[in-house]
Amino acid sequence: AQKVTQAQTEISVVEKEDVTLDCVYETRDTTYYLFWYKQPPSGELVFLIRRNSFDEQNEISGRYSWNFQKSTSSFNFTITASQVVDSAVYFCALRGSARQLTFGSGTQLTVLP
Amino acid sequence: DGGITQSPKYLFRKEGQNVTLSCEQNLNHDAMYWYRQDPGQGLRLIYYSQIVNDFQKGDIAEGYSVSREKKESFPLTVTSAQKNPTAFYLCASNPYAPSGRATGELFFGEGSRLTVL
User: Fold this and answer.
1) B88 and A106 in contact by Cβ < 8 A?
2) Residue B117 has pLDDT above 90, yes or no
3) Residues in B touching A50 (Cβ below 8 Å)
């Protein structure tokens, strides 16, 4: 069985602050993929990043960065200089040998002006 | 534009009624999925289909039914047997690589919010 834990239910920050969203996963598979999705108020989930289990390089995309550490089974997501438009629910997800994604419970991020 | 279209966006149902949620994709994707989202519980898989005329139960299939008669369509019926159907329903799809393995990234529709009165 696989499991994804997002312990932070809600986070509030003031605009321009940096914020890190935590994701911890459990799987017995040696090959797996990790994902982050953003769900704005409109409801549609937007894909942000996919990372496979053999690639532990951190990744930066604009204000977004991801820190993948297999030793701690974590795949954390940092938003630098947050903006009001970053307000959304963020989901971490895992795909192992099965063809379905297992999602975490999500973190509601509110960025205040 | 390519994408996934879900309808209706909002739906109200009386207890005891069956309702069908539509999901259509023009991405030529092989696999399609239905998820249910409840506050604080993330997304839970209801049903999925990897090819036409075939589908599999997910984690919470009881009280739901699906069909996959066409590659682009995967409707979900919420039956009267579903005890707590009020939720946000999301349809998704993804393509398969030539190797037959899913590429992993899901593409989502905008969702349908069902409320039972």
Assistant:
1) no
2) no
3) 104-105
